[in-house]
Automatic annotation (TrEMBL):
One of its GO terms (molecular function) is hydrolase activity, acting on ester bonds. Residues 58-92, 334-393 are annotated as: Disordered. This is SGNH hydrolase-type esterase domain-containing protein. SUPFAM superfamilies: SGNH hydrolase. Pfam families: DUF459. Gene3D superfamilies: SGNH hydrolase. Residues 61-75 have a biased composition (Basic residues). It comes from Ciceribacter lividus.
Length: 393
C-alpha cells in the first residue's frame, strides 16, 4: 500500500509537470494574460496532494476616452493705433545764435544735453568742440590755451560754455619743475591757467559760462572735484565769467553721491553710469538744465522756441485795399506798445472818485462819526420830551 501511494504521488507530480509545460502552448492570448490563484485544502497542506489552480478572469480596465479639445480662442482685440511718427527736427535759421561747448568728456555730455534742450529753438544751435581726455594740467597732450583762440575764430560763437577738470587730478609740469597735486605751487599755476582761459573768452566780449563738475562715486575723486569747483567759482567770477554750480542735482539730501535721482520732470531715473563717473542721457539732460536758463538769458529772444523771422518764404498773404480806402489812409507815428502814456493819459478808464452824497447815509454816520440813527417816536430808547399836543398811547 505504501508503494502504491508513493507511485500515485509520483505519477500526479509527473502529470502536473507535463500540464505546466503544455498549457502555456495551448492557452489563448486572453488566458495568458489571466492571473491565477492557488486554492489549497487542509489535506493538501498535510499530505502535499495535487493542487488546483483556478484561473481568475482579468478585471476589464476602463479606457479613458479623451475627446480632442478645441483650441482656445484668443479674444480678438482691436488693433492698437499706430504711434504717430515723431515730428521732424526743427530747421535751424541761418543766423541762429551759436553756443560753443569746450572741455573734457563731461563737456561732451553737456553738449548733448544742451542740444536736446534747444532742439525746438530754431534760433539757437549748439556746437561741441570737446576733447575727452584733455584738461588744464597736461598741456603736452592738449593745450587749450593755444587751441581755444583758433576755435573761437572758426566758430564765431555768441556764447561759450566751458566744463573741464575731471582729468586734472595729477602732477603738473611747470617751468619750475614738477608740482604735486594739491600743493601750493600747483594751486597757483592752476589758477593762472584758469584765468588765461577765461580771459581768452571775455577779452572778445563774449559771455562765458563755466560749469562746475558733478560728484563722482570714488570718495577721493569727489573731494577733489569739490575743491576744484571752489577754485573755478572764485577765479572765473573775478574775471568776468559766470559759474554754474550743478552739484546739488547729483547728490541726496545728505550730500552723498547718487546713481538714481530726479530728472528735469521730477521722475526717478538713472543719472550716472555703472562706473559712477560718466552720465546717462537723463543725467546729461539734467546737467544741461542748469545751464539752459542763464544761456537763454544771454541769447535773448532768439532762444525762444516760438521765435521765427519773416522772410519772402513765410510772409502772410497780403490783400490790397480798395482804391477808395487807399486814398484815405492817414499815416501816424509809431507808438511803443510798452509806453504807459500811449493813450495820452495816466489813469485807467473809470478812475474817477464817486460823487459826494448830499446827505450822509446811516452807515457813514455810524462808521465815520459814531452817530446812531434817531429812534422812532415812542420807542423805549426815545428820550426826547413829548410835545404838548402829542398824546402817548
Amino acid at each position: 500500500m505504501r508503494q502504491k501511494s508513493g507511485y500515485r504521488h509520483w505519477r500526479g507530480s509527473l502529470w502536473l509537470a507535463v500540464l505546466a509545460l503544455v498549457l502555456p502552448l495551448l492557452a489563448t492570448p486572453d488566458a495568458v494574460q489571466a492571473q491565477y490563484r492557488e486554492r489549497r485544502t487542509l489535506l493538501d497542506l498535510l499530505f502535499g496532494g495535487p493542487r488546483y489552480i483556478e484561473p481568475i478572469e482579468p478585471v476589464p480596465t476602463r479606457r479613458k476616452i479623451t475627446t480632442p479639445r478645441a483650441p482656445k480662442k484668443t479674444p480678438k482685440t482691436a488693433a492698437s493705433p499706430a504711434a504717430p511718427p515723431p515730428p521732424p527736427p526743427t530747421v535751424k535759421l541761418e543766423n541762429a545764435r551759436k553756443v560753443l561747448v569746450v572741455g573734457d568728456f563731461i563737456a561732451g555730455g553737456l553738449a548733448e544735453g544742451l542740444d536736446e534742450a534747444f532742439a525746438n529753438s530754431a534760433g539757437v544751435t549748439v556746437i561741441e568742440k570737446s576733447n575727452g581726455s584733455s584738461g588744464l594740467v597736461r598741456e603736452d597732450y592738449y593745450n587749450w590755451q593755444t587751441e581755444l583762440p583758433t576755435i573761437l575764430d572758426e566758430v564765431k560763437p555768441d556764447l561759450v560754455v566751458i566744463e573741464i577738470g575731471a582729468n586734472d587730478r595729477q602732477q603738473m609740469v611747470t617751468a619750475a619743475g614738477r608740482q604735486d597735486f594739491r600743493t601750493d605751487d600747483w594751486h597757483k599755476e592752476y589758477e593762472r591757467r584758469i584765468i588765461a582761459l577765461a580771459k581768452t573768452v571775455t577779452d572778445r566780449k563774449l559771455p562765458l559760462l563755466w560749469v562746475g563738475m558733478p560728484p563722482f562715486r570714488p570718495q577721493n575723486m569727489t573731494s577733489d572735484a569739490l575743491m576744484l569747483n571752489g577754485i573755478y567759482q572764485k577765479t572765473v567770477e573775478a574775471h568776468g565769467g559766470e559759474f554754474i554750480d550743478i552739484w546739488e542735482g547729483f547728490v541726496d539730501a545728505d550730500g552723498r553721491f547718487i546713481l538714481t535721482g530726479s530728472d528735469i520732470n521730477g521722475q526717478q531715473v538713472r543719472l550716472r553710469g555703472s562706473d559712477g563717473i560718466n552720465l546717462t542721457a537723463a543725467g546729461k539732460r539734467k546737467m544741461a538744465f542748469y545751464v539752459e536758463k542763464p544761456a537763454r538769458r544771454h541769447l535773448g529772444e532768439m532762444a525762444s522756441p516760438e521765435f521765427m523771422t519773416l522772410d519772402g518764404g513765410n510772409l502772410p498773404e497780403l490783400r490790397s485795399l480798395p482804391p477808395s480806402q487807399m486814398q484815405n489812409i492817414v499815416s501816424t507815428q509809431p507808438i511803443n506798445m510798452t509806453d504807459p502814456d500811449l493813450d495820452g493819459g495816466t489813469k485807467l478808464l473809470g478812475d474817477e472818485p464817486p460823487p459826494a452824497a448830499a446827505f450822509p447815509s446811516p452807515r457813514e454816520n455810524l462808521v465815520q462819526r459814531g452817530q446812531l440813527p434817531p429812534p422812532p417816536r415812542g420807542r423805549v430808547d426815545d428820550y426826547a420830551l413829548p410835545q404838548a399836543n402829542t398824546v402817548l398811547q
